[in-house]
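Notes continue from the previous slide.

Worked example: a multi-chain complex. Inputs as given:
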Amino acid sequence: MSSKTPPQFDSSRLLDHLPDPLILTDVQGDIVWVNEKTEEIFGISGEEITGWSFIQIIKIDKIDKQLKEVLQTGESSESSYEAATVKVRNPEGKYFFKITIKPILDNGKVGGALIQLSDVSRFKELERIKTDFVSIVSHELRTPLSSIAMGVGMLKDGLLGQLTPRGSEMVDAIEKDCDRLSKLAGNLLDLSKIEAGQIALETQLVQVKGLVDEAVRPLKWQAESQNIQIKTNIPEDLPYVEADFNKIVWVLANLLANSLRYSEPGGTIAVKVEMSGNRMFFSVQDDGCGIPREYQDKIFQKFVQVKGDSGPVGGAGLGLAICKEFVEAHSGQIWVESEEGKGSNFTFTLPLARSKENIAP
Amino acid sequence: MEKKVLLVEDEKNIILGVRTSLEAVGYEVHVVEDGEAALDFVRNQKPDLILLDLLLPKVDGFEVCAKLKKDAETKDIPVVVLTAKATEEDRRKVMELGADAYMTKPFRPQELWDEIKKYLPEGQQS
């Protein structure tokens, strides 16, 4: 704290100079005061709105709901920048705001709330530019990759003459890297589509066992060749989940492929599914090298890769970011518990199907 | 008789790859590099199948597809779209215009042969 006493000014005049809208409500959620920026953005005047309920003026349900919760619980609410930006359109342009709502406590009781809208329009704009850029790059990668894939395919099939053993070794290596690049281009494109909100879920009632089998099957051979055992433990009587089959298979397969990548020969990977409350818990547990503590919070972010003693293990660090997007699009959550040297346990949840038909298969 | 495949594509390396892989299994491959030339070729030469890129000079692939599928003379010629545009929207749009199949780049010769074989079962000579 500064030892100086601040000079005395009219505090509401000071707040008028803030670059962000600021709104004060009473305990009912009726507006009692707004600063100048609010008047400007929402095209209203402070005098005419006093006493109106919040939702009448700021017609955004999301903030109204958040406000009611704060007034009821007395706990602050801050939306994350990614999750809960609100869009406001006025003649000057389009704005994106992040919302912070703080209760005003009077003798320990909630007397009202202070709503602050922080302008994040510029961040949103940058995000859009980045998403477009990624999408263009990924499209541009596909055309040259196509001629490489075709050339390699023909060389391998001997359509262009017989290869020497050294030659076919080289062609195999090119093919592998070509696959890797194709996958990367595909992942980048998926991610840019998800971020742009372009991925629609095709949900249906899904049987859990079928989901797990579909994810495990293509990796069985790889696991055997690495001498790693994949154990699945799926109770027969689990109810259905409401999910996009392909996307959840993708998530499970990605978690399994990660476990395979970080496991030693002789290791075991266990896939478990359990129901608890109204959610289904899917977990993939391995006894591999584990994830250092400093990475555990970050691995679901884009381009974050755990670097082991022998350097990165390959991949671009997009898989888990896509997993997170897919799971959250299903209103689920994903997290990891891990101890270095002992292994990792990735878990994600899906809500149970709400349909009446949802009886155990 | 060799089956006649028209490739509508403006990327030189893709042309080389597709032409080589299709000729290797006995198709007769013709290439045009823009949409206008594609429409001309189809009307005059009646290929057995068309491989169509979407991003083309002059007339784009969507329009080529729409025109061919509206014309009674050409509507039965199978159109297989080959494209780097991988959005669901593009796929839906061109399929609605009447395209018969949609392949996203990159693809391998085998995938291309398999797709073409669905429409030209007797085309392959090897």
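Summary box: Chain A touches chain B through 25 residues (CB under 8 Å). The first strand of chain A starts at residue 22 and ends at 26.
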